[in-house]
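quick q for whoever's on today - can somebody do inverse folding on this one?? i tried earlier but teh output was garbage lol. tokens:
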């Protein structure tokens, strides 16, 4: 497939059939994406709950991998919009060396 990120393509090659099997006979790409994210993050709810789950898991990952990623938690939070535009307070991270 030209133009599709190789990691996404590999993941979808392995999981798209199962996702489609769990959708109705007619669905749009947003239905597919929502089901994909529900399956990936174990959240059987709406897109806001999935965004919160993804946000939480990424935050946990950054926190647990600070040393490996050469970042540190500044222990400061700032209000920023998520991908849907909802404002929430988020950790500020700082690079500890040039990555």
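ok took a stab at it. sequence:
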């Amino acid at each position: 497939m030209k133009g599709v990120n190789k990691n996404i393509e590999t993941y979808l090659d392995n999981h798209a059939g199962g996702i489609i099997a769990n959708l109705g006979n007619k669905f749009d790409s947003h239905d597919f994406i929502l089901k994909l994210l529900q399956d990936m993050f174990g959240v059987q709810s709406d897109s806001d709950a999935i965004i919160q789950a993804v946000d939480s898991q990424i935050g946990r990952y950054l926190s647990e991998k600070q040393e490996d990623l050469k970042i540190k938690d500044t222990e400061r939070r700032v209000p920023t919009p998520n991908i849907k535009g909802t404002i929430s307070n988020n950790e500020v991270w700082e690079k500890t060396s040039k990555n």
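fwiw The CA atoms of residues 25 and 31 lie 12 Å apart. also The first strand starts at residue 71 and ends at 81. so keep that in mind when u check it
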